[in-house]
């Protein structure tokens, strides 16, 4: 179940696909993000006025299609016909929970207990499901490369060559490694983006004052209709950015990260010395909730990310994407995708929810999420939306 690479191999594999997540590539993905954002808004509008539902499942379907149509290089038809896609889409969180449980419960490291408790059967199912889905994606791209011609593809625009094609053409990865890397980037792109986007929508539902601020700002920047959302527009939506960052603080997509010290280093003015080979664990969830760094850390307050508040705070108190050469590869992709989806939804719908965010139970594992889902209601906005 585990696929772990590090050192030179990890750096090499990351370098291959880095162009797919860069700013130039993101501009090419805007058409997909806008089209899928419109579809998401339309799907949510069909839920019915006042009906309570978990928005995550609609959002993860949208982010899955976006990832397939951009990073995976698939067509809409291909995406709709990938075997086991629905299973993977709906059970990815279960897979992560399975991995996390095995990590923290020592008795599951004993093979016979792992088998007797039925955990091995679950793992075999997950592996089979993932392998079938990702093998199909890779085979689709192999066939496409043969039909399109590698030379013509490179001459067309290498900057937007998708992740799978880059892995296939680089000649550095075995067929099995290509399948495993494809799954890794697939799920970390679609599942993580879905969690964050769902969190933003739920925050806006619980914080009507901030929802009004974000909506009014959207209208001021883009106008009252369904105009196309450009990357330049997103940069002007400061209130949306504040809500987005507060969601990342409140629900970090990685509850903790681990790093290995390569060279001996002294920290805190020499008070502590970390030897080479030391494993350092950085609890992002704890860091983002530390009352010494954040006022009322258990409250949801996007205002803490206003420009003036950010200037007064040490930048290392907020590191949702980690730092340095091992920071999150998909951070720019996620920002553009999630904000575009939110703009489309908010222009069409008013979001509503009951209670206080701080009263919602959290599930802290590999990532942090709301334990009982992202439950909200929607109703149409009164303003007429131009077609």
TrEMBL record:
The keyword Oxidoreductase applies. The keyword Phosphoprotein does not apply. GO terms for molecular function: heme binding; iron ion binding; monooxygenase activity; oxidoreductase activity, acting on paired donors, with incorporation or reduction of molecular oxygen. It comes from the Eukaryota. Keywords: Heme, Iron, Metal-binding, Monooxygenase, Oxidoreductase. It holds the Pfam family p450. Coiled coil: none annotated. InterPro entries: Cyt_P450 (IPR001128), Cyt_P450_E_grp-I (IPR002401), Cyt_P450_sf (IPR036396), Cytochrome_P450_Monoox (IPR050196). Its cofactor is heme. Heme binds at residue 328. Belongs to the cytochrome P450 family. PANTHER family: BIFUNCTIONAL ALBAFLAVENONE MONOOXYGENASE_TERPENE SYNTHASE, CYTOCHROME P450 FAMILY 4. This is Cytochrome P450 4V2. It comes from Eumeta variegata (Bagworm moth). The gene is Cyp4v2.
């Amino acid at each position: 179940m585990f696929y772990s690479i590090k050192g030179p191999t990890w750096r090499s594999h990351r370098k291959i696909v880095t162009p797919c997540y860069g700013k130039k590539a993101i501009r090419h993905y805007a058409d997909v993000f806008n089209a899928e954002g419109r579809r998401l808004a339309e799907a949510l509008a069909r839920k019915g006025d006042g009906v309570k539902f978990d928005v995550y499942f609609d959002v993860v379907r949208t982010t899955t299609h976006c990832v397939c149509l951009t990073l995976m290089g698939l067509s809409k038809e291909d995406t709709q016909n990938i075997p086991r896609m629905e299973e993977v889409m709906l059970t990815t969180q279960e897979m992560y929970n399975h991995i996390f449980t095995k990590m923290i419960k020592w008795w599951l490291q004993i093979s016979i207990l792992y088998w007797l408790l039925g955990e091995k059967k679950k793992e075999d199912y997950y592996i089979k499901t993932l392998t079938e889905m990702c093998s199909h994606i890779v085979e689709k791209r192999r066939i496409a490369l043969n039909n399109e011609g590698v030379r013509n593809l490179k001459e067309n625009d290498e900057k937007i060559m998708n992740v799978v094609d880059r892995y296939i053409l680089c000649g550095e990865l075995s067929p099995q490694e290509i399948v495993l890397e494809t799954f890794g980037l697939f799920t970390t792109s679609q599942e993580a983006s879905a969690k964050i986007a769902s969190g933003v929508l739920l925050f806006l539902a619980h914080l009507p004052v901030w929802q009004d601020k974000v909506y009014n700002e959207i209208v001021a920047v883009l106008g009252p209709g369904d105009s196309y959302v450009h990357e330049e527009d997103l940069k002007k939506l400061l209130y949306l950015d504040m809500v987005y960052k507060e969601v990342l603080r409140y629900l970090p997509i990685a509850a903790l990260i681990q790093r290995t010290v390569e060279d001996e280093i002294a920290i805190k003015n020499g008070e502590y010395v970390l030897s080479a080979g030391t494993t350092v664990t950085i609890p992002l969830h704890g860091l983002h909730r530390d009352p010494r760094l954040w006022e009322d850390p258990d409250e949801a307050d996007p205002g803490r990310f206003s420009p003036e508040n950010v200037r007064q705070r040490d930048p290392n108190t907020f590191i949702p994407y980690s730092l340095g050469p091992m920071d999150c590869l998909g951070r720019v992709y996620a920002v553009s995708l999630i904000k575009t989806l939110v703009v489309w939804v908010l222009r069409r719908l008013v979001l509503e929810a009951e209670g206080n965010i701080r009263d919602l139970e959290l599930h802290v594992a590999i990532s942090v999420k709301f334990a009982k889902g992202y439950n909200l209601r929607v109703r149409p906005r009164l303003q007429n939306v131009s077609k």
